[in-house]
Amino acid sequence: MIRVLNNRILITDEYVRGYQPPYPDRVNNVYVYGTRLTNGVMVAAFSRPIYSYEQPYDANLVGCTPWKFMVGLNRMDINGHAHHHSVTPIHQVVCLNNLVVYSAPCSFTYDNHRVKQRVTYGVKNGTLSFRFVLTGIKSGTTGWTGIGFGSSMHSGIDTIMLRLWNDQIFITDEYVKGHKSPSPDKVNNVRVYSTRVADGVMVAAFSRSVHSYEQPYDASLVKCSPWKFIIGLNRMSRNRHARHHSVTPIHRIVCLDNCMV
């Protein structure tokens, strides 16, 4: 679903059955690259896997499948609930095997006015490279953020931890299981290229292998795997032990075959 509300474009992964408004999926598998609304023109770039990970809510798009293209902007209420479309959607059978897809880096973006965060990532020769940008940081702020790989805390999460301390960024390869603070891996498989904190912006470039060399502490990221994006900076102790995140991490199924560079 693509909604225009207060001059902003909101893109969500939803499901509808019968004559009811659509409602969001439990797992949002839509990745938004960018949106723009200027001079009466609305532009949006986004993607989703062709496979189904949350049946029946995600359709499998392998081979030839029926699509429905909504026409124009349709009415919705003040809460953003969609009303019935004013123009009959255009039905087409789409065969994705006939499309040529050019690989490019993938990205995750979060923006709620107070926190603006963007993670760009891509794979080359088995190495997964990241560029992490977080804005809106006040001078003297300390805290932690990062990216987790795994389904849940109960089964264990392989985590790349980013800590901001005394205007320096520390990046480590860690693991957490259960409701404990993450602990460093015996073998650090994260390579740091550069870090910078200036003018309220935190930037870091780093990489790790897509393969697992230290099980169960390193998650294999080959093909499609569950990721968790930590939002903003979260509290930590004076010893730099991470405390519980203040915002629920955003879960994504990431298919790195779509992120080759």
Automatic annotation (TrEMBL):
Gene3D superfamilies: Cellobiose dehydrogenase, cytochrome domain. InterPro entries: DOH_DOMON, DOMON_domain. Pfam families: DOMON (PF03351). Residues 115-234 form the DOMON domain. CDD domains: DOMON_DOH (cd09631). This is DOMON domain-containing protein.
